[in-house]
UniProtKB/TrEMBL annotation:
Biological process (GO), any one: enzyme-directed rRNA pseudouridine synthesis
Pfam families assigned to the protein according to its UniProt record, in alphabetical order: PseudoU_synth_2
Organism: Diversispora eburnea
Name the record gives this protein: 4149_t:CDS:1
Record family assignment: Belongs to the pseudouridine synthase RluA family.
GO molecular function: pseudouridine synthase activity; RNA binding
PANTHER family: MITOCHONDRIAL RNA PSEUDOURIDINE SYNTHASE (PTHR21600), RNA PSEUDOURIDYLATE SYNTHASE DOMAIN-CONTAINING PROTEIN 1 (PTHR21600:SF87)
All copies of domain Pseudouridine synthase RsuA/RluA-like, residue ranges: 26-122
Annotated signal sequence range: none
Amino acid sequence: MHVNPLPNYCSTIVPTIKILFRNDEFLVVDKLYDVRIDGDSSKGHTVLSILYNQDPNLPKPLRNVHQLDHSTSGCYCLALTKKAAGLASVAFAKRKVEKYYLAIVRGWMKDDSYIVEQPIAEVPNNRYRMCIGSKNNPGKKLK
């Protein structure tokens, strides 16, 4: 059975990123999953390449103040000025910023929400999944 490949134009379609907040200092976007923040855009779209495609008038450079993994979606904050980047980076480094994560689970949960205050570790042999740390797989400690 012969399957036709996708037409060439499919690889040139640029996704859009929803802007959640913008002022003179910061831009907060809804980062897509499986999209890198920056880097070589010839290997695939990046958050920065998509944003500059959407709005070529955005200041250059947009400054990263924290990171989200390639496979993670969610709120991502960029600084529009060098001063704002410095202030935000200090706030993240001193843990003044609260982060919340939503997990997709298999099965049914007794309650609607939980607070997990245990280390998060990578699932062995699956870099895209995380689990609660254990003695053999301690993960990262809370600071």
